[in-house]
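TEACHING EXERCISE
Course module: macromolecular assemblies
Task: Read the component lines below, then compare them to the predicted structure of the full complex.
Student: A.B.
Group: 4
Components provided:
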Amino acid sequence: MKKGNLAPALAVAAIAALAVAGCSSSSSTGSGSTTGTTASGNTVDVYSSLPMVGSSSAQTIPMVNGIKLALSQAGGMAGKFHVRYIELNDATAAAGKWDPSQTQANAREAATDKNAVYYIGEFNSGASEVSIPILNQGGLAQVSPANTYVGLTTSLPGSAPGEPAKYYPTGTRNYLRIVPIDSIQAASDLMVMHQAGCTKVAVANDKEAYGAGLAQLLGLEKSYYGVNIVSNTGIDPTAANFRSYAATTKTEGANCFFFAGIVSNGAVQITKDVAAALPAAKIFGGDGICTSSFTQASQGGVPASIASRIECTVATQNLPSYPGGKRFLSAYKSAYKVTDPDPYAIYGYGAMQLGLSTIAKLGANGDNKADVLKALFATRDTQSVLGTFGFNKDGDTTLKSYGVYKIATDGVPVFFETLTPTKTVG
Amino acid sequence: MTALLPAWWSRVLAAALVVFGVLLPFGFGTASGFMNATIIALAFAVMSLGLNIVVGVAGLLDLGYVAFYAIGAYAVGWFGSEFFSRVNVHVLVSPVVSELPGIHLSFLLILVAAAAICAAAGVVIGLPTLRLRGDYIAIVTLAFGEIIGVVAVNGQSISLGGGMTLTAGNLGISAVDEPYIPGIGSFGLLDLRPWYWLIFAILLVALFVNLRIRDSRLGRAWVALREDEVAAVSMGIPLVRTKLLAYAMGAAFGGMSGAFLGTYYTEVNAGQFQFGFSIFILAMVIIGGLGSIWGAVTGGLLLGYINNWLIPDVLNNLPSAFGFSFQLTQVEFGIFGFLLVITMVLRPQGLLPERRRRQELTAAIPAEDSQLSTGPEDAA
Amino acid sequence: MVNTTTITPEPPAELPGLPGRLGDLGARTRVLAGLLAKVRGAGGLVLIAALAALPLYYGITDLVNGYQAGVVAGRPVIHHDLSKLGFNFAEGLSDGAIWALIAIGYTLVYGIIELINFAHGDVFMIGSFTAVGLWGPLGLGLSTSALGVAGGLFVTLLVTMAVTGSLNAGIERVAYRPLRNAPKLAPLITAVGFSFILQNVGLLWRGGSPQSVADLIGAQHKVFTIGGVPILRGYLLAFAVMVPLVIALTWFIGSTRAGKAMRATAQDPEAARLMGINVDSTVSLTFALGGALAGAGGLVYAVYETNVWYFQGFQAGLMAFTAAVMGGIGNVRGAVLGGLIIGVIQSLSDSRIGPEWTEAVVFGYLIAIMVLRPKGLLGEQTREAG
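Instructor-supplied answer key:
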């Protein structure tokens, strides 16, 4: 740095310019858009934080559609409060998927928002590990429509040491989820496979928190249901094909295949390859794949000949028979032109509905986040599109049933029966 | 241009920069989104400085820098959390943390450990590339970066005995300790100021080291190797040692920044360590100006802000600010790519190019009598 | 950067003033470097040994210990033959043929302007999308006759190659030509930028999840069997497209005037310009050819794998780039060889070690090959030192 050079001056100028720009917008909303009226004093803020960029958007866009539908059906109101819905994105362009920096930013924004009372998120269990402690310190309720990893709320087998306490630095719980945890879904899936007569099951997981966790619980609980799992293989979701893996399942003599993961992680391709290698095998999966983008050929899913061999589980049971179920289906169809909404759309709808009804029931105290949190944990027997449920002291839903779906000839998953597993690791 | 400003100007400017940096947080809320983006941008600037040493100064195209980010972050995950729950080691941590199982070292110790481990890793990665030219170095470093990424994901199944595994894969090692200053307290999650000052201090240290080395024998040896390896070696520059030192130093900065990000994010998730990140950091160095220290910092800050503030906070709100319901997140990739293309096409030499390169790229300077002198040159 | 492989000066004794411990490090690494040089000196033998290690090992264990080929009546069936290894090779070579098609594009572009075109993989992805998009208007479906499918695919091939060729040439015009005189790494970033843009196009076109497409040729149907190894239609298609295209390209580069211009420009652009060659249009032609081959690869991918995904280009590009470098940068035959080798390694790893480790195995192999043969398997063909 001899004789003074201009480089540092330019750097300062650039940073100063950005700072000035940031100053003026630092009070604006975060990484998303807002809907709803903004009457102050009579407004509560409801946030959602989901990965809206990249592969997961295939699942989160329907989820946001469900959330918005619930809000519009309630007229944008929760009791006597106007609801301002802020949709945040926890993914970044450079990463193309959820990013801890963005998740933190979203959680912090909600935690420091005085009008915030409800936070719907995250989609990935790994992201919730980042957001729960921040929202915990902010005393804001977080409700997840998708996390199933057991360690977020319990210390059951499958969780890491120190969990779940390490996510709640204040000691008080602030996290709830409306979908049952992995141990219940795994048990339901084992029941389904046992019923279907599977003697040797090959499990493949996409190595993400949801898939790996589900596969792990399948292994831990298989003895309760007399199912023989011959292999649990982690796959590379970006691989071009899985024929070598499929050949391996053939040599293992598997007669059933279970894919633990979500559609965007190679589910369709691996299913096609395994179905070709094992022409008589039945195919199973969890709610990550129980959607028409996996089961319907016209939507890029598996061919119809394979679809007829699939059975999958979703936390919603026979939707039309539940209060509001028919209304939801017809409203979803008219708003989004889809006759069978993705399970995640239903979960999103259920999450928003839960929030709106909880706020409404509190009357004048609906804008007090501590009251909302207490009321959520006190929920018993609330009726929703997911059935009748409440929350236990861990924040887990009291729903212990899963719906089994088979695939109709047009490729749409159709409800078949409800299963309530009696034996789980918990 | 360099003759315009007196010598003391640079010192005043440096002091002003430091003061401005220290006072910056007071202009924003304690949990402001802009501060979050600034902290991350500063961390990227440190990484950019590290990669700049390898790619810009020493001329070794490293496409696997994400490996050092990963190792630095895992250093925090291993030595600053409950991950190794069967072991009980506590050094200079807060009273709350002393009760927890696992290895818990003070953050400054972890920082040093991360730098050391990464320096060693840098040497290991650099060794096979010593006799390779140009883009073959790129491919080998890329390979190492990918292998570390795969190990990070699969580490969930690599058992270390006692129920402990190497990593937690895509689930992440979570609830990593926050830094603790004895007598004052731990960093919190809602107050961003201490974090900001910590990373700003790390950046100042990195800048200081870089500036000193640039003008030292080692720095000039790197440039000599970059410009003409045969001539440099003939003049007595030890090839192997110099190259390995470049890798080691670059890696150490990556590790330090990685350790900071690991504790800032409170989680170490294998999904963060993908090849795309290496390209991201490389873009920072190139857009800033290859080989230029201030360029690296500027590039790091610029891309950090674009990725974590401009696109998510500013641009994504634009449609709704104008009353449209169009979701800009659908084209976030494209916008980011477009910004990269535009920046490079408009200024291919980078924002703040190295002085040597500026001289190379400047058109022929007409020789006037006044310029033909045999006096001491401005050898900056 | 100067090519140093012809002169290897002996590093001088330690300079005074340098810390002793660092000097030690230098000495030890010098010993290691010396060892490596001896190994390399042992020549292609060691390289061939390294390459053959995996298949040899598994071949021998298959023969001696046998492998489980299935389960009959609850008991495992053990075979002692090489058909599983043969299956690995058949799978691997046909997957590798697709990587080869993409790798050729990388290597041609690198040979001529020393640029790693990171957008190339995404051009391949656009090729796949275009090909699949054409099947609708052409009326190609599962019920089309064999002749109809063959004709339709041929038309699709031509159109796709034209589209991706022009796309690649267009990107060159917009993003790389203005940076011809910029620092060597500047076009790398515009390439990355375009990669992002193309990925977004793919994301908007077909969404975030991989999409299954109609299995037009019945890619998994067995055509015949060689020594217990089933040869599927997909394998034949991959080679039926790759081999003629590579032969045509090699002929083009070797025997035509334009091809000679390409070689001349690759060797020394300044001299080529002096000899009257239009460097700009030669470069454009190179990009167009590389893009066309990537498009062909995209069509083969869509028909063979029966799925397309906006992200497939990123991953495929990585593998193809690795193949191009492994075979020797600028060397077309090397790119083909590299692609085939990577395909086989992938298949062996998927089948024997586990799919979660495949990427690590491929890259581990790459490091080994680079250490043993720094100029790539068949040597590089790029501009001379100057």
